[in-house]
Amino acid sequence: MVFSASNSVLIICKDAAGIAGNIFAFGLFVSPAHTFRRIIRNRATEEFSGLPYIYALLNCLICTWYGSPIVSSDNILVMTVNSVGAVFQLVYITLFIIYAEKTKKVRMLGLLAAVCGLIAIIVFGSLQITDAAMRRLVVGLLSCASLISMFASPLFIINLVIRTKSVEFMPFYLSLSTFLMSTSFLLYGIFNFDLFVYVPNGVGTILGIVQLALYFHYKDSSKGNSREPLIVSYA
């Protein structure tokens, strides 16, 4: 009876953390909107790079596959947040291709095809693993590695903030959304006893704290308006 009650509490806490993570992730999904309004208005991608969106799409697709019932039956909220994230990235990539110059357009189409090919290999390859636990382990390791590399991407921005003593390229609400989303999925992974979720999001939480600390330390010395960064991380 006590065990059943404790298990029910864990499930409720896990679901609450996962739902919160999905909500906070929306702030990250829409963060490039300002950049793409500028691209559409100027009908040119200018100096912006499309690579972060390609990599974010790959990350979202790998994590969506890990969260699917075929790989892990108890991670539906991981699948939902990353599938929505993948849709956003596809929209951004499509807009980028439409307004990019010919050389960038060809390069982006090639990279998009490479992502589709890689995901097809991962899905097909993992389906050949008949042991469910081993399949979850393999895809989980890929998902974990992808997430950690995504969360590590703001290290360049952190270094830039320290060197310039300015938070111009690190908007507060984006850093806050990253921290809240990472913390939510850290708790989700802990409540679900899933190290492939709580380990990378633990890294994301730590980096989120660092970004917020730097923001409050350097915000008074920043000049000019904040710009939207092109790198977005998901849980």
Q: What share of the residues lie within helices? A: over 70%
Radius of gyration over C-alpha positions, nearest whole angstrom: 19 Å
Instruction: Please indicate the count of domains.
Output: 1
Structural class: mainly alpha
Q: Categorize the overall geometry.
A: globular
Strand content of the residues, in percent?
A: under 5%
Task: Please give a handful of descriptors for the protein shown.
235 residues, mainly alpha, 9 helices, 77% helix, globular
In short, what is this structure?
By secondary structure, the protein is mainly α.
Give an overview of the whole structure.
This protein is mainly α and 235 residues long. The protein has one domain. 77% of the residues lie in helices and 0% in strands. The chain is built from nine helices and no strands. The chain has helices spanning 2-29, 33-42, 51-67, 76-99, 102-127, 132-152, 155-164, 172-191, 195-218. Helix 1 runs antiparallel to helix 8 (172-191). GO terms for molecular function: sugar transmembrane transporter activity. Keywords: Membrane, Repeat, Sugar transport, Transmembrane, Transmembrane helix, Transport. One of its GO terms (biological process) is protein homooligomerization. Belongs to the SWEET sugar transporter family.
